[in-house]
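Handout, tutorial session.
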Amino acid sequence: MENSEFNPKITFSDRLRIWFKWFLDPVAGFFNHIGLTPNTMTLMGLVGNFVAAWFVATGRMSTGGLIMLITTPFDALDGTMARLRGDASDWGAFVDSVTDRYTELAILGGLSYYFATTGDWLSAVVTFAAAAGTVLVSYVKARAEAVGFTAKVGFLTRVERYLVLGPLLLFNRPIWAVWFIAIFANFTALQRIFFVRAQAHARKNAPPEDAGTQQ
């Protein structure tokens, strides 16, 4: 049974796609026109973020942050390109989501390596907590949808994390970035857990759909 009280809200990511549709559609159309495919864009974003992670791991935070800021927006273009080509599919959305996790974990893995090799073990542990939070935000949503709930809510979703991590790396403030993400990504995961819990209680306490037809 569906309850309108728990319909997914429009996220910040959704709003950005609406606000910048005037820009994304022509750029995506251009890349389609020159023969690039959505999967190519996804791969370019993935490779770019792994390159950024290498710079981060070697202590060149500003360079890594700049590369991350340049390549991560390909994530928005691949979906738009697929839509314009009429090729949007569940498989494409699945691959895009999995790739997003790899790109985030690559950057955070680079940070964890850097902190560990420089002896900053506290920051290394905090980076692990940040990575755990980013995975849990996605995992809670996936598991909720698998059992018929929604969890498209939360303070620090994918786009917000990008807008925190990229600029702070660019300005060489990696410790600020990992602390912020460690706290608020896990907070977002808890937000989603309690959101699903409320739906579960509403479902449990709802009257049977055929109760009104019984004599």
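The second record follows below. Compare its token runs with those of the first.
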Amino acid sequence: MNYLAHIYLSENRPKVTIGNFIADGNGIRGKSYQKFDKDIQVGILLHRQIDTFTDAHPTVRQSTKRLHKNYGHYSGIIIDIFYDHFLAKNWTSYSDVPLNEYANAFYNLLEEHVDDLPKYTQHILPYMKKGNWLVSYASIKGIESVLKGMDKRTKNQSQMYLSITELETHYKEFESEFTSFFEELRQFSHTKLNTIINNI
């Protein structure tokens, strides 16, 4: 799952949310998470559990299989972004707080705890806020922009942005798979969150 889903699955727990968000792209591997505040540790461990559950799930694999021929091992990354699109697009089914308000509260949370953030997250935060990434996921144009940014990180080798064609062609299938999977993921994540809190 991508940023929005990880944030959402933190169940409005501020430092758990931070941990769940920073667990990717910051080189937090093995037991290095233990240097963080306890609640941030919970978020990092929850993130790992969510990723493991997602990667092994047959519905997610069904989605990635549709992309594998053209995008190989990047298929999973693309599906994470597609699924965030469907979460953002259908946000009112999952939250009573408007997405723009929810996103602004998250950006403010990161700014309030900027000293707790790794250097990479501190670096991307202004861009994330300026581009309102979380809200942009709700449109296909926004997703295409995200994929173009991801493509640049692969020195244009992945051509991930071209997968918008597959998204539009198989839109109903992808959305149905997301909806089915995300309900299972919400239940799994809620249980795991409580288990981690009780055992850390």
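Points raised in discussion: The two ends are 23 Å apart (CA to CA).
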